[in-house]
Description:
The structure holds two protein chains of two kinds.
Chain A: H1 7-13, E1 31-33, E2 36-41, E3 44-49, E4 53-55, E5 58-61, E6 67-71, E7 74-77, H2 82-103, H3 109-122, H4 124-129, E8 137-142, E9 147-153, E10 159-161, E11 165-168, H5 172-185, H6 195-212, E12 228-233, E13 236-239, H7 242-253
Antiparallel strand pairs in A: 1-4, 2-3, 2-11, 3-12, 4-5, 6-7, 7-8, 8-9, 9-10, 12-13
Chain B: H1 5-23, E1 29-34, E2 37-44, E3 50-54, E4 57-63, H2 65-85, H3 93-110, E5 119-125, E6 134-138, E7 144-148, E8 150-153, H4 157-169, H5 178-205, H6 208-211, H7 220-230, E9 235-242, E10 251-253, H8 256-260
Antiparallel strand pairs in B: 1-2, 1-8, 2-9, 3-4, 4-5, 5-6, 6-7, 9-10
Helix pairs in contact in B: 4-5, 5-7
Amino acid sequence: MGMQGDFLQLLKEQGYQIxxxxxxxTEVEITRGTTILAMxxxxxxxxxxxxxxxxxxxxxxxxxxxxxxxxxxxxxxxAGVPATAYEMVRVLEHSFKYYRRTQLQELSFEGKLRxxxxxxxxxxxxxxxxxxxxxxxxxxxxxxxSSAKIFFxxxxxxxxxxxxxxxxxxxxxxxxxxxHYLNTWNGQPxxxxxxxxxxxQALRLLTCAAEFDSATGGxxxxxxLYPVVKLITERGVRTVPDGTLKPLFESKVTRHV
Amino acid sequence: MYxxxxxxxxxxxxxxxxxxxxxxxxxxxxxxxxxDGTLLLTVSRGTPxxxxxxxxxxxxxxxxxxxxxxxxxxxLEMAHLEGFxxxxxxxxxxxxxxxxxxxxxxxxxxxxxxxPFIVKxxxxxxxxxxxxxxxxxxxxxxxxxETSGCAVLAATKAIQARMVAYLKQAGHAxxxxxxxxxxxxxxxxxxxxxxxxxxxxxxxxxxxESATPVAQEPDDAALLAHLRDTLAxxxxxxxxxxxxxxxxxxxxxxxxEELASLVxxxxxxxx
Lengths: 257, 271
């Protein structure tokens, strides 16, 4: 029944199923995505991700976009198996549009959070088999509460609010401690940082993650390759262009001391 | 009683009469290309008549709200499944019309023991490049046509033709700004609405001959006056598909302020 505006239900009626589980013991190197982070800043939420996708020790791709726009006011940053993660993003994107167009109103922020949870729950078998584990961060602007918010999920679909920041992916243990340090003893909390300062911190954090985690791609200066940084405010989602990241990286990140 | 073929033909003929009768009070819908996209305009009371179907497709309808809603849902389902399973570029107005609407509407129209859909539908599709926007309209019997530049829905084919002629004669040569397109669409709407009213009046008096000849279309003042009178108890409804809109969804409902500028201050009812 499409009357409720539930796109996932509509897909299921057509025989669709998210995530296919493979019997345990299948020995394949699966492509995975790596470090993502989200933090509050003065005007909203900043979400950033490195660009590397790896399979075992091999670098699969160095231009992955792990911070994906679901609609004008929400993004999902993905860590884990990209095949499943991109599929989830496609389902969510269509679900939000389908809901808006059938019900003639936006899906509420909470409704969007639930939609992410539901997809992860449907994917549990694949997640546990190791072929489809995804641990995303969802960030968006909540018009009911007039604030931008961060939520992160485990691979089973449990939802947690990141009050100040959230991290996910293999490089996240490295930067989680730094975020706590910055937020507590840096003179001002992350949520008070202006846009440029927050962007600089995000670039530094991802560079740090790349330093200690082989699966996180750092900044590739020669190839002009920078992390993806997106800002969410009341006005919507905006991508920080490479033209802005480049000078910030040169002046504030490389050999700064 | 309808077993014999000629009875069936007769029954279908009766249906046309019934549907024409049902649709003659409907508010016309005007769709028009302008410089940065496509505009849809109508006047509605209570239930909206303009809807978003997919990233670059909008729908305008005339007829029974329940029928319109049913067809809208079936289009939405088809468009979103197709856009998900294939890609958003494969969801085109022509496919939606030919595969999604036409067969259902035609079947309902010809199954004489069941109720037909009391609707006329217009789909506007925004192209990526200017000048390539398309419009598709479908009648209650399932016949559809594709046009470019503009398209309208009104009670009869003759009135639709007059409205299209009016829109074309105003000229699209230099692409219109949104304001100019709105003003033109509003006047075309008023023209259609006046023509429908005249036809109903003529039917009532049973003077069929006097209804047809139209020496001259009403002037701007008459059209605006009619629009102003109508807006006393109804509301203007407008939507655009904007080529430059950020993100994949190009549909936007026009705000009250944008539409308010249509009826010039001088023509508005004194406060």
